């Protein structure tokens, strides 16, 4: 019927009693096994197939609605189900949820929110729809509504590792680290193989200057999912701050697997510099692949000796960039042995940067290591 394994989802054509399947589905939800997005879609797809013969839409509509490789095809298939007056509210609710996921993947948060809202109207106890809508609100920048939706999702399904992880993200972004840590701990307790939670928790350890715990959580996440690119970046920063520049350089290389991560390029350049190696050739080869010439591209140009420190600083447009400019300037002096100028730049960064930023954490550590 349906074979679901952690980290892998297989769907076989169902041939079963719909009532029995619905009871099984509720049991899986209660057990917290819906945290994997692919698993959730597989379950929804199976539910649609179970009821499909009884209603007006053809099999193609169900197949299109529940595949997510082609978002436009998903939207078209789900729309036909939603518009079919012969459909049950159950199937229309699932179609709204699936179409909302497709809109969200396309970056259209407003339409995603509208579809998730319709799904909730059809089933006010749809914990997954609240979880999904919360993420769309978060991506839209409305953290209050996102938090409210995650709270409802957890109340409806207290075994949802996904909702706890997502609520933890909101609390982390607001600087409410202690409650965020509790949410991440709940998520890990419900699903110890949920790699993304370890990655998110590592951000808090790193922001607090606890490089050891950040490295441990990222190592766990990467062991569970080697494609957790964000953790290569976080662990690379943590290794850098711990003075293990060789490990930092390797992780930052992996973090830039897409070839379009300007910050990973810059920090790898600095890690190589601390090792006495020239990273300019690699940085110069990677820079043309960047999709944007926005900040911190001015830093790359400066590091490649194509502009001056003053020109790099003149490209700054906000306080966060000013923090980075002072840090990158201080590091540039540091790897060249200019201790006095390095100290001045790093002290400026420590005074300007937000306390949870990687630049602040690194500047404070570098100042402690810096020669008198």
Please describe what this structure looks like:
With 372 residues, the chain is mainly α. Among the domains are: 1-160, Serine Threonine Protein Phosphatase 5, Tetratricopeptide repeat, CATH 1.25.40.10; 210-281, Tetratricopeptide repeat domain (Serine Threonine Protein Phosphatase 5, Tetratricopeptide repeat, Alpha Horseshoe). Helices cover 71% and strands 2% of the residues. The chain contains 21 helices and 2 strands. The chain has a two-stranded antiparallel ribbon with strand order 1-2. Strand 1 (2-5) and strand 2 (8-11) form a beta hairpin. The longest helix is centred in the first third of the chain and has 17 residues, at 89-105.
Main beta sheet, described?
2 strands, antiparallel
CATH class of the domain at 1-160: Mainly Alpha
Quaternary structure type: single chain
CATH topology of the domain at 1-160: Serine Threonine Protein Phosphatase 5, Tetratricopeptide repeat
The helix/strand series, from N terminus to C terminus, equals: EEHHHHHHHHHHHHHHHHHHHHH
Number of helices, counting only DSSP H or I runs of 4 residues or more: 21
**Could you estimate the helical fraction of the residues in percent?**
over 70%
Please give the number of β-strands: 2
Give me the CATH architecture of the domain at 1-160, please: Alpha Horseshoe
